[in-house]
Amino acid sequence: MRWFGININSHISLARIGLVGFSFVVGSMATMSFTNKPDDGQLISDSTISDKNGFKSLFASNTFDATKPYATQLNPRAVSFVQEYIRKQGKELERMKSWGKPYFDLYDNVLSLYGVPKEMKYLSVIESHLSSGLVSWAGAVGPWQLMDYEARRFGLRTGGAGDDRMDYYKSTHVAAKLMKELYTEFGDWLLVVAAYNGGAGRVRQAIKRSGSRDFWELQYNLPEETRNHVKKFIGTHYVFEGSGGWTTLTASETEAQKQLFAKPQEAVLTDLDLENTATTEISGRYNSVIVANGLAMEINQFNKWNPGFDKTLAEGKKYPLRLQKDKVAVFHARKNNFLMESVRALLDGNTSSPAK
């Protein structure tokens, strides 16, 4: 398989599509397969999800909301597929958490060497069910289902009993390099999964035809097996992690979340808080604990009124400090002392002394 040439896309697609139907046998395990694959149809009732396994709560949100933590969300266009996927495969994947741990530990160590998120290890789950001996009809081999020409491109031996693609350690290094190459091109982990399955050329064509780099917009310009492969990856992530994550978001969703996290939190204030407090704009490396101590305030109360205080000031930005009205004058009378003490604590590496 070549990721970079459109002229062999058909071969790439057949190679990958031939091995990703999630139909395989590992040891004495029963064959697992998807026959009638759900796609983006009507939402399946939450009653189809096992409460015992804790899956029901994963699907409470039907829209992607940039104001909510990414870990609680599932893109609405993936909900029905992921629900059905977990209903069918969830129990087997739950068992894999135990017997697959040695393989996942190895994956974590290798992927981190290349700056690839550890959660990308779940791509091996949907490629091979962690089976080292799996061979697809198209000739992809091993836990990462590598084609011979890609394996040879990275120096692996192929063919026979000494096929390096069956070696977990060696094949994971190659898979990590491939994923890193794909991420360098697409900058989106969902597109990396799609390209790993159907080929980078297929993804390029889908981007061109749809005019979008968003997987949820371009997905119908990809083969059904490839777009379902991405949703299987998301579903597997939910089973193992109990939530979504950065690798289950598009690049635009990721950026929205990062911008949200970069913004200072807003204080949650009652009418009584607003009546009894006032703000004064400050700048400088003040430390919240030192200021709270100096004003005889409980640190929890200080943080409630002034979320993100230390982080914002550390970034060189101004901050609207909120205090009880009678303490504003006290702060200004002593602010130079507070600042000197804060800077001294910073230099001494002691910036988190408990409030008195």
Walkthrough of the structure:
This protein has 356 residues and is mostly helical. The chain has 2 domains: 256 residues, Lysozyme; 78 residues. The longest helix is centred in the C-terminal third of the chain and has 24 residues. It is elongated. The N and C termini lie far apart (64 Å). Belongs to the transglycosylase Slt family. Keywords: Membrane, Transmembrane, Transmembrane helix. It comes from Sediminibacterium roseum.
| % residues in beta strands | under 5%
Q: Return the CATH class of the largest domain.
A: Mainly Alpha
Strand order of the largest sheet: 1-2
Count of DSSP-assigned helices: 16
Averaged pLDDT: 79
Low-confidence stretches: 1-72
Helix-strand topology string: HHHHHHHHHHHHEHHHEH
CATH architecture of the largest domain, by name, is Orthogonal Bundle
Number of strands: 2
Proportion of residues in helical segments: 40-55%
CATH topology call of the largest domain? Lysozyme
Report the biggest beta sheet as strand number plus sense, adding barrel if it closes.
2 strands, antiparallel
Could you give the distance between the termini?
64 Å
Shape assignment: elongated
Please tell me the total number of domains: 2
Family: Belongs to the transglycosylase Slt family.
Keywords: Membrane, Transmembrane, Transmembrane helix
Protein name: Lytic transglycosylase domain-containing protein
Transmembrane segments: 12-34
